[in-house]
Amino acid sequence: DQTGKIYSLTGVHTDITEQKMAEEKLRLSEQRNRYLSEGTIEAIFISKNGICLEANSAAAEMFGYDSVSELIGIKSTDITAPESHEIVYYHIKNNLPGPYEAIGIRKDGSKFPMEIIAKEMLYKDIESVRVTGIRDITERKKVEQRFKLVAQTTTDMFYEWDIETDEVIWSEKLERLLGEENQRHDFTSWGGRLHPEDQKQTVAALQTHLEGESPMWQTEYRIRTADGSWVWMLGKGRVVEFDENNQPLRMVGTISDITDLVVLREILEYRQRLFERVLDLLPVGVWLADKTGKL
Prior knowledge:
The protein is α+β, with helices and mostly antiparallel strands and about 300 residues long. The chain has helices at about 15-40, 55-60, 85-95, 140-150, 170-180, 185-190, 195-210, 260-280; strands at about 45-50, 50-55, 100-105, 110-125, 125-135, 155-160, 165-170, 185, 215-225, 230-240, 250-255.
């Protein structure tokens, strides 16, 4: 009224439950993604048109920046060595996921080998961005170099298996034999090529060693090569690194092509069986003696 006393109130109530739920869902999603990205040793970048929108702390550490904020707004070329610009551009332009290798460049100008894998995703459920994971593969390259040096002095093929990440490094000879050169290998790459008749016993023997029930893994098996043929292999290996709970982390070993040996062994076994069969059919007694006459 004229004195300012309120007698009635008129208003509108709007149900914003769905809006609040959507906001909470988005907040939880962003928080979950942040926990995931911060909980990995890989560098994670979220970019649009080659410009960094977000990154994790591992990215700042890997590329030598003091904080994540320094990475926001940089271009992909700022963390890639000039000799790798072309391959990075190619994958971004054609929206290829990888993985592929390139040379990274840190803030101080030093370079290092890296493996890149990327995927297009919705960013905050609004726009499409490219999420890129980068791994420093300096140690892997050192191992590969050791493999090359050792391979020059032997006919055996070598491998190193990171059991935790399921990444397998093969020597060049093994890559050529299986037709998987310049690719990222894992246990499936090898296991999928085993002969069906050998697969069960080969994997079982490997599992026995991983569980600590045998001092080393050693098995003969057939494997399919790049041209589709089958060759006999002698696989050997031993776990050389364990975690604090004594679980296997890394295994190294050799693989030898024993096809000729197996064929020769089969021929000798056939001749032995044939010889014994002939002796059984002879109508007279037969004995064998050495040159001194000793039976």
